[in-house]
Each structure stands twice: as structure tokens, then as C-alpha cells.
Amino acid sequence: MVEELARTLSVDGDPPYLAGFAKSYGQEPDLLLRAIIDLYVRWLANTTYLEQAKAAWNQQKSSLLSGVATSIGKVFEKVSTLVPLTTLVNDAIQGLVSSNKTLATGGVVVSTLQYEQARDLVSLVGQIAEKPVVMVLDQLEKSPDLQFEAKTLASYLDNLEDWRSCHIYMTLRAEEPALGIARELTGGQPGTAEIYELGLLNLERQAEQDALLGFLRGKVPATSGVDDAVLLRLIDGYPGVIGHWTSRYQIDHMKSYHELNTVAADAHQYHYREFEKILKLEDSNENRLAIRLAAVPFATEEHWKALRPIVVQQEDDRLIDDLFQKRVLEAANPPTYGHAKRFEAAYGWFKEHRIHSTRTEVTSVIRGCADRIRFKERKEIYFLGTLLSLRQIARELELHWFIKALCDAAASILAETPLIEARYWIGINGRMITERETGAIVLIAGGVTQALEVAKEEDDLPRRDALLAELRTLATAYPDDAPVREQLAKALFNTLHDAKEEDDLPRRDALLAELRTLATAYPDDAPVREQLSFLST
Question: Is 132 helix (H, G, I), strand (E, B) or coil?
Fold first, then answer.
């Protein structure tokens, strides 16, 4: 429904809006960044708008905002090539924001949009297209960093004169802490920001009733012969009934008024009765895959592409088609259970009826993501995001402490607001040795490195030094793992500069000597040598 709002405003608005849409699945903060990427893709995917934009670009590019204009100019230069438009826009905007926050952990960059960049990117669209802009941000409550989202939105409200042609719709469930943040935003800006509680469907007008009933009768065979008034009574203003009735499984299986009534009652209770049949999978491979798909939502096609080897694992890709044919999945590429409520219900069913299998499969996904993190490639953001989204699930399932630690490491790395206390990581190598845990050491080292930075920001120098000692222990314990040494080298470099600022020159010199010794001992480690080169520039 929310995505339909973006589409309707862009098609039926008076005047038509340029719309950007993004939904949070709990994997990356910064909904506004992804909505702006979607805004540009929708804008330039329209042939008419594209030709107008290219003409306006050629006329105005010398006077446009220099920072964002340079990045977006690359899109106009390549837009007629074989490179997909989504890829062009994503690369351009991600490239623009990539310098905002380079992790202490290394080459992976968490792209967070600065206020000025968001303003300028939206202003650029307005200047060229000469149309109003609307940004639709869905499921805010699922964001892994609500404080970061709130800061961006507060800046927007405080500077509305910079956003004259832009309106933002934000949807969230009425639950804390997201609802409290929304109230703070509206309370501080009366008249400019309002909370609207979504009510039931308004079907008072005959034209709306006729359109809905015509749609249902054309799509749901079981509605044939049932009076209009009866169908409207069963719906009772709740859109979820329509979603249940039009699911692929129910279209195939509902045959009578009695079944329409039963499914409608289930919808009002957020219950998916079909799961009692279709999730009792006899094929063990299908069962394992269905559980993994219920635990991990795929926000984008790129996310699915990155996670596919982890989620599908050894199973034949045809299993996805099998689950789709059995009406377990609503779509196959990327695979999805459909509406967020159905997704949550599927996971809930497995958690209730297949708890041991669920624990096993969630553990498998967490390990699969964690083992692939080397802090080198952009796609690792999807692994980190998945770990972050599984963090609460790992706790609910009472998984092994080390599995929870992997999710916590991702949380430390991704969130703008620290979620993990720095002391959590002190002594982790000893615990790993005791329980013979050796996997995903690079991610663990990354969590320690990020915690070290937080300790410094909080001026907790003893804890910072204890975390540096922990990194030394990890690097010594895993001498064949170069990315772990890279974490140590970066930490030595940063702490060396801290010592200089603290006017602790003996400590600075000792850290410099340690960094040189590390580079000499491992002459083939380019990232380690790189830290020394920074000192000479």
C-alpha cells in the first residue's frame, strides 16, 4: 500500500510528483539514502523525463551544485549504455557518499548520507525536472539505527526552506521506540510535521466499492455468487483481508463463502491458516531452505544476489521454484513470502513448530555471512546488514554466545549509534580458544577495532588500551590471517595519532616502532605497509 502511494503520486498527482521509495528491513540505516537512489532511478527510467533531463543537464550543468552534479553527471554520460540504470545510479550516489564514513575496520564503507548531500541531491532533481518531489520511507521502526534516522529527519524539519519542493511521508507501526521518535519530531515542529493514524478502508463512495468488488471478482473465483454486501462485510474496512484473499495459495484453494469467511477472519487476526498445510514440507532440503528464507528478508535484488550462495547453499536452485509452485513463496526472484505480515507469520510458524531446525538454519546463515567478511568488497555490506537483522533473532533463539557475538560485531560496525559496550570485546580471544571457536575471526577483529574507536570517542583510554591489547592477541593467535593483522595495523595507526594528541610522545614512539616491526615481519602485507606510508605523507 505504501509503495502504491509513491506510484500514485508520481502518476496521478496534480502536478505529478517525482517519487522515491525505500523500505527498511533492519539491515542498513539511512532510509533517505535508498529513497533518493530510488528517486533517481524512477525519474530517469521514464523516457520522457530522461530526454528532458539530458537536455536540461546540458544547459545547466555549469551552474548546478558542484559536488552532486559531478557524480550525477556520470549517470547522464552512461545512461544510454548497456549498464543497468539501477547500477549506474547506485554507483554514482554511493560513490558520492563513500567518503563520509570509512570504517576503522578497513576497505568496506558504510554509506551514510550527510544532510547537505541529501539536500543537494533532491535539489538537483528539482532544478532539472522542475517538478515537486516526494520521498516515501516505509517501516521506519525496523531501522537498525533509529537515532541516526531521527537526526536526518530533524535536520530536514529544521531547514524546510532548503526543501521547498520536497515532501516526506514516513510510515511506522505504532510501537516504541519508533513511535516516540515520531512524536518528538512532530512535537518540535507543530504545523510542519503531523502524525496520522491509518484507519480502515473508506468505502463509502459507490465508485470505490465498485472498483474493489470488480477487482476481487476478476481475481478471486470464490467471490463468484457472493453478494456485494457480504463481501464488504467480510472485509470490514481491513486491507489485509484483500491481501489474504488474493494470495496465490488462497486463489487456488478457496472455493466457497465458508472459506472466504474463514480466511477473512484469519486476516483480521494476522493468521495464515495455509501455513498449517504448506509449511509441513516432507523434503528436508525444502524445509531447510524455507526456514532460511523466512529468517532473512531481501531488501533488493543486489542483496539477494550477494546472499544467494549462503541461503541456497548446497541445495539445487530448483528448490526455490518448487517452493514457489507449492505456494509457499509469493515470488521466486528474489524469493519472498510476500507481505511483511506473511513473512513474519512464516518465521513464527517455523519458530513454533520447527524450533531445532530454525536454530540450526539461522546459525548456518550467520556463520555463512560472518565467514565471508574480509572488509574488502562492497557486497560485504549485505553480509553485515544480514547479521544485524538477525541479532535479535539470535537472542530469541538463545543461540550459542559466539553466534550472538558475530551479530554484535556487525552491530558495532554498522550502527552510527554504538549498540555494544566496548568492554564486551575484552577477553574474547580467550573465550574463543576455550570453546575452540576459530571461524569468522576477521569479523571479530573488526568488532574489536570499532569498539576501540568508540572507547576513544568516549575518552575511556584504559578500555581503549585493553582493546588494543586484545587485537594484538588476536593477530598473534591467527598469524596466517592477514586481514586480522590489518585491523591491528589500523588500530596502531589510530592510537599512535591519539598518543600524539595526548602529548604522550614515548607512547607514540613505541607504537610507531611496533607498527614498523609488524610491517617488517610481514613484508607482503600491503595494508600494513600502507599505514606506515600514511605517516610519511
Answer: coil
